[in-house]
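Side project, low priority. Logging it here so it doesn't get lost.
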Amino acid sequence: MNASHPADQLTIEVRCRLSFAGTPAGFTLDLNETWPGRGVTALFGPSGCGKTTTLRTVAGLHRAPFAHVAVHGQVWQGDAPVTWVLPHQRALGYVFQQPSLFAHLSVRGNVEFGMQRVPAAQRRVALDQAVELLGIGGLMDRRPDKLSGGEAQRVAMARALAASPRLLLLDEPLAALDAARKAEVLPWLEHLHRELDIPVLYVSHAIDEVARLADHLVLMDAGRVLASGPAADILTRPQLPLAHGDSAGALLEGVVHSQDAAFHLTRVSLPANPQGAPLELGGASALAPGTRVRLRVQARDVSLCLSPPQGSSILNILPTQVLAVHDDGPGLVMVTLALGHTRLLARITAKSAQQLGLQIGLNVMAQIKGVAVLK
């Protein structure tokens, strides 16, 4: 990304009211948003909530009257004065659910096509860089019909990067892939996130993808934004639907502290809880000390007790404080917990909550039965 843009201009602004009278419910997309111009901003919500329409509006594929779209201070659409940048002139890359590669071109030809959109003097991503970032060096002479689904999607991403975009739009790029192909592509998406300073708008209705990739989360429903903020906050905010149900969980940022070779455990310190002991995790022994990791703790994997238990098989037992208690289905409650300056969730029975006397401000021990290392 061009480093000449002032920090206060590193934003993505979308303001529009776009109606589709022909839809059964008369769908309207109504946005007035400013999102970070760095990292991955995920648009999340059920099918039909307006995620893809938002991306198409940013790309100029839907022209909304009186809309405003600006990236890093450059207006792509506006009405004061009237501005309209044609879709092919917008400095963006767009990757759809289907790779949509040109069948008559090789992988090299597809990626080079992306480069042709940008004059040589304005290119910020070299062909070799795009190829290396997506790991497609061994595929360059193949035709699209000789690629797996995961390979084809990586080529589509390389083609989008070759256009040296100031913004990358990914519209459910994993939706058409099976579990094995998703597992193949996700690490490459993370690699892009780490290596490139290009902001990404990522559309998904899969919470596991969002938890793994998103820095900023935009929760949408029926054409409107319910909430927008750091992913860890939106996933655990008790008044929002993502903090309820069996799939609810918290995100924690950690740093690998050390390895316990004897028991094949990795110790991870939590900056959000600097006084606490490191978490001990299995299955992450390849991570070197100092490596930053993102962890997901499912609410169903957290139990509570009033004092440190004796003789427990659970390794990770953390002191926390109750922030909120909400009903979460028949006989269940969701407990929001403060862990340093971040939050955990615990989904327990209503009977257990009553027996523990849970109330706001109560200090409890959170017993974490499982932790997933996302990246």
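Brief comment: The two ends are 23 Å apart (CA to CA).
Revisit when time allows.
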